[in-house]
């Protein structure tokens, strides 16, 4: 897929490391360009366990509107004092904190039903307070929802603007097509794999 999508790099979780290693080894042997592979830590799903693209409520999509973000966050598994299997804290560590915190700033959390606030300049401090019960799951959820929507607003806006621009494009014309025609002159088995063929083309 990397070759046919014409990408220079692929991003995935550390659970994809074996297929990435496989691709780096065999793509050049097939005559394809070796790609760059970027990996990130696995973030637990919002419903507990591994995040899954096929499980809608286990993840936040970039184009989820605010009311959907709120619904997913409210339903998220967030056991009091549990920092080990907590998808919300992982989102704070790997997404919100790196993107929302200025060098000398921090994350603002509203506590005690709005009676006070506290600013966290360290993810570890937030985890410590959550583990001690000083930050309630509902307070953590409100904070995550707030900052996620701040991050998603410009992404949604750019997507909708792009979609409007595409809707204004004229209907498909023949001159907009890029057709490539070639003749296969010879086909032979790949020396390193019985499942592949080497095709010699005459453009």
UniProtKB/TrEMBL annotation:
Keywords: Aminoacyl-tRNA synthetase, ATP-binding, Ligase, Nucleotide-binding, Protein biosynthesis. Coiled coil: none annotated. InterPro entries: aa-tRNA-synth_Ic (IPR002305), Rossmann-like_a/b/a_fold (IPR014729), Tyr-tRNA-ligase (IPR002307), Tyr-tRNA-ligase_arc/euk-type (IPR023617), Tyr-tRNA_synthase (IPR050489). SUPFAM superfamilies: Nucleotidylyl transferase. It comes from the Eukaryota. It catalyses: tRNA(Tyr) + L-tyrosine + ATP = L-tyrosyl-tRNA(Tyr) + AMP + diphosphate + H(+). Its EC number is 6.1.1.1. Belongs to the class-I aminoacyl-tRNA synthetase family. This is tyrosine--tRNA ligase. It comes from Timema podura.
